[in-house]
Known about the structure:
0% strand
Amino acid sequence: MPTPTIPFALSRRGLFRLAGAAALSAATMSTTVACGREEISGPALDSLTAQARAARSDAADALAASTAIADYATALEIVAAQRAEHADALDTEIARATGAPTDTPTTETSATSTTTTAAAPPPPDIAAVRETLTASARSAAQAARNESGYRAGLLGSISAACSVSASVVLA
């Protein structure tokens, strides 16, 4: 299958501007939460929670890969920061819709306990990070189809940012 060509060339500075714009849009959407409380539960809550977990996992993978892949370190750090912002935006929406506090889950305790008992897995390579981001983009797009309003926009924005990260930033 031939590799798709990009109809325009982006400079390194242009790529960083694009990544910054994606991060800014995610941050803007997280602060522009709709007024009123729409209670969510069941599949809708599970979907948002799964998206938040995936975002945190993607951020951790990208950050781990940035330490091992010097050529992509800066780009991977940008991806990690964006995915962390996605997780925060999803956590904020979950808290708003359920009335729960906005504390973000931490996995540091479990990570430190597993590193003392077992060797840490090697960081993922660039292809694995791209594949994970592509899967996250598909998953967020699918979840957006089942939502409406702000949540659909948030998930659509996350899907677009993951697609850009996988196909442009990490290209």
